[in-house]
Design a protein that fits this description.
single chain, about 110 residues, alpha+beta, Alpha-Beta Plaits, four-stranded mixed sheet, three-stranded antiparallel sheet, 2 helices, 7 strands, about 15% helix
Length: about 110
């Protein structure tokens, strides 16, 4: 896992002051191709959130095939305790904790 490596397309084109564009995380692969490029976004009340998410998607798209085998955008948010409940999945043969973030959201599970 590599933390904040230079973006292979945007960093070389960067001129002037400031930090070169980077990727949040990457998994090194053979040669100059990454196995995985990861951008992460924290959901907040920021007025630029939508713009920032779109930029991350475009930045990842610039990498796939020529510079990375795969890319993902991970989006995280803080869940309020009253919005969540945890239960054991009845259809499981082993202990799994399933967290639902509200009635109309997808569950996440850890086993």
């Amino acid at each position: 896992m590599i933390v904040e490596p230079d973006h292979p397309v945007l960093a070389p084109a960067h001129a002037g002051r400031g930090r070169k564009p980077s990727i949040d995380f990457a998994v090194a692969g053979p040669g100059n191709v990454l196995d995985l490029a990861v951008e992460m976004k924290w959901v907040s009340a920021s007025p630029t959130l939508l713009r920032d998410v779109i930029r991350d998607v475009v930045r990842l798209d610039m990498l796939v095939h020529a510079h990375a085998r795969d890319a993902i955008l991970m989006i995280a948010a803080r869940l309020l305790e009253e919005d969540c409940h945890i239960r054991t999945a009845p259809e499981s043969d082993h202990d799994c904790e399933v967290m639902y973030a509200g009635p109309d959201r997808l569950p996440t599970a850890t086993c």
